[in-house]
Design a protein that fits this description.
Blueprint lengths: L11 E5 L3 H12 L3 E6 L9 E5 L16 E4 L8 H18 L6 E7 L10 E2 L10 H14 L5 E6 L1 E3 L5 H7 L4 E2 L6 E2 L1 E3 H11 L8 E4 L5 E2 H12 L5 E2 L10 E2 L2 H5 L9 H10 L6
Parallel strand pairs: 1-2, 1-4, 2-3, 4-5, 5-7, 6-15, 7-12, 8-11, 9-14
Antiparallel strand pairs: 10-13
Helix pairs in contact: 1-5, 2-3, 6-8
């Protein structure tokens, strides 16, 4: 059940890995009247109400002196796509952070990914679906999720689908350049969530009574990838995408957000076609 009065008493929150998603979460929490600390490796522009901390999750010595907080949002972004980087950040970094805190948090949100699921032939997938990650990224995230579940820190894994939003418009470039392809009529599905909806979902899960250990973070409308790409190409005035293979390493599935909706969440952008169209209309699309 969704609540708005912070019944768990999570008045102080540490956002660890305050990149795009983490900063959006931090701003929402500040607006709710919470004390928010945000940890990142580099200095950040001053953001009203956020207490910025500097530290590297992969270097335990840099995490000395962290404040005691009621809750943690663990949302780092790797700067390289290889297994060693992922493990040092998501597995070791999570352990380093929680060991560095002076007190165990009452709730810890771990930003995971739908990459933990494998190939399902376009079938519906939810939190009860067994994980079967096809790539190293999903395997590392499953390892981190399981470590979190084995520690008394109120762990919740939030498996986000493909993020899009301001600054995340590489697909537009690929479509304009004729480099995006999709299997035509193959019913291969794309699963998306707007970055603002992802941040809103994470903020909400700090206040859910008796939360589940895992949530899938996705919008309401899984779309055949050729339908999504074709729609965007039309909006952009770009050539129709060629018939081709689907993106590698993600598996064909339709992700369900039923559990998140049952917790009270509603997407501002339930259909990625509308969310992407708003980006194009607002000038966030490169020209």
């Amino acid at each position: 059940m969704l609540t708005t009065s912070h019944p768990q008493g999570y008045a102080t929150v540490l956002v660890a890995g305050a990149g795009d998603v983490g900063t959006r979460v931090a701003r929402r929490l500040v607006a709710q009247g919470r004390q928010v600390f945000a940890l990142r490796r580099s200095d950040a522009d001053r953001d009203h109400g956020i207490h910025w901390l500097r530290g590297d999750l992969t270097r335990p010595a840099s995490l000395e002196g962290l404040p005691a907080v009621d809750a943690v949002v663990f949302a780092p972004a790797p700067d390289a796509r290889d297994e060693a980087t992922y493990r040092s950040l998501f597995v070791d970094g999570l352990r380093h952070l929680l060991h560095a805190l002076p007190e165990a948090p009452k709730r810890t949100l771990f930003v995971s990914s739908s990459a933990v699921y494998g190939e399902h032939g376009g079938a519906w997938v939810d939190e009860a679906t067994p994980v079967a990650p096809p790539g190293f990224n999903g395997r590392v995230l499953v390892e981190a999720e399981r470590w979190l579940a084995g520690n008394a820190v109120g762990g919740i894994a939030v498996r986000l689908a493909g993020l899009y939003g301001p600054g995340r418009t590489q697909l537009f470039d690929r479509l304009r350049e004729g480099k995006a392809s999709a299997p035509h009529g193959g019913r291969v599905y794309a699963n998306r969530i707007h970055v603002d909806d992802a941040a809103a979902a994470l903020a909400l899960l700090l206040d859910v009574d008796r939360p589940e250990p895992v949530y899938v973070g996705v919008d309401d409308t899984p779309l055949p990838i050729d339908v999504l790409y074709g729609h965007l190409a039309t909006l952009l005035g770009a050539p129709a995408p060629a018939d081709g293979t689907p993106p590698a390493g993600i598996g064909n599935k339709r992700l369900s957000n039923a559990r998140l909706r049952a917790a009270g969440f509603r997407c501002a952008w339930p259909d990625a076609r509308d969310g992407y169209a708003a980006l194009i209309g607002s000038g966030h699309s490169p020209t």
